[in-house]
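FYI - complex with zinc ion, inputs then prediction.
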Amino acid sequence: MLKTVARAVMLTSALALMASGALAQDRNAAGGPESTPFTLETDQPRTPEQEAVRFDRADVSLTVLPAEKAIRGVGVLEFTVLAPVDRLSVELDRLFEMSDVQVDGQTIAPDRWANPEGRMTIQLPRPLAAGEKTSLRIVYGGQPRTARRAPWNGGFVWSTAPGGEPWIATAVQLEGCDLIFPCIDNSNAEPGRVDLHVTVPSDLSAPGNGVFQGKMDNGDGTTTWNWSIRNPNIYAVNLNVGPFEEMSGVYQSRFGNTIPMQYWHLKSDKPEDVQRLFAEFPVMLDFFEQVIGPYPFGDEKMGVVETPHLGMEHQTLNAYGNGYKIEEEGYDTLLQHEFSHEWFANQLTNRNADHMWLHEGLGSYMQPLFARWLRGEAYMQRELADQRDGLANRFAVVSRTDRTVDQVYGGTEGPGGDIYSKGSLIAHTLHMTMGDADFFKALRTLIYGRPDPRPGNFVPQIRTTQDYNAIVNQVTGRNYDWFFNAYLYEASLPVLTQVREPSRLTLSWTTPAGVFPMPIEVEVDGRVRLVEMRNGRGTVDVRPGSVIVVDPANKVLRQSDAVDRYQAYRRAHPASGGR
Ligand SMILES: [Zn+2]
């Protein structure tokens, strides 16, 4: 998900407002029917019944009724039993009416299933043993939750294109798949495959995730569009309906495969805008494939769809709502951010929302790296400096407890915007400390589960911060626990104290995490040397009149009096503008 529209300073408080305060107010003030608090959360702990099954496949048929702002759905969920069960448990928003529930073709009597709060429990006709397969079919329908402010307060977006046609999207990262179809709303329960059949008025298009499986004119003014996607991230399956045109092309990958590119845009868009954005697709693929590794879903497509909301990392069909803005970064930052999530969210998925910085922080680091790759060092440093100015450092990036997505994205009880900018700056510091070769080898291992990814030799990885720490230790042959302890698990930044004497500069690190042996470069009279800082302390010989610059290339994230003063000023003078 995109952090916010505005740039840099005080982003954090803006995001916190969007993700918590304003959101709570919207929910209370909403006149219409509202989902239960349970449904509005995602990534809550699974039930024993959910942990006892593997979610193999979902086959979801959705008929979209734009005039009624409603859908009719049939969800068929296939599971393999891992441990004996006599019940199934799935999530589905109670706003939908459920008219028929079947298990393996047998209707379940209404007194044998219940959905009190959005977590549905179904008594099985007979207990199932490990290794058995079972299929749950739910017929449902009604008006789904309308997004109050997508993508930060999500659900269905019922909009209108400039030509007056319905323009519909979904964005459910903070609420989960259960706003659209029955599923297990937990990032550990990625289905092996989702087949989507979307029926819409025949004058509209319904681009989808994964591979197009053809469309069928139903002869009644509606057309059904069929799509199939493997291993989708649970919040990345989405619905898009509108008066779209498809621009397509083929990308020749450096890994030998060819990748279809599709951009579904409104028919009313200016052709030159569409051309310009589409021309960025292969450039972004070049960058990610060269710097990180193979595009994870090259066998399906790189897809983008124009949406009435800003952006979202819908797998193989990124939501794009940036309105073709020309930005000072020199590329479309929204497209680049959402596209980075194909690696950092959809291929590498966090085990729990507590590790969301692996999506947003590593994803955000791809922007300064891309800026450097495109335009050189100054443009990378400008983006890094912008990120630095907005850090809140109120809560640790990772709490080491299970969290819901709302807790993490909201800045009132979790890190909020820091998962983006601080995550990016932590990644940059790690990069500068480890060096290019080790940093990218560790990153590839984290993302693909192996250092030598090729198309077809990897599967999606579910990861934690601890996994990343262990991979870094293994790749470097050194213990980096001190790095993760100080930067990820503590809220405050390491403080570097400098004591200048006539012939000596003494440096020492302080962090709540204990000894912090972070080496640091010091430039003395134009000559840069690396101070090792064993046990968190080091000295440099200087002369009385020496010109000294500590960390001249800004490689190490640390507390800064200048930034603290600036942030305090901005809080006291909120109308003072700034970049
Ligand atoms: Zn994001």
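The first strand starts at residue 53 and ends at 65. Residues 5-30 have pLDDT under 50 and may be disordered.
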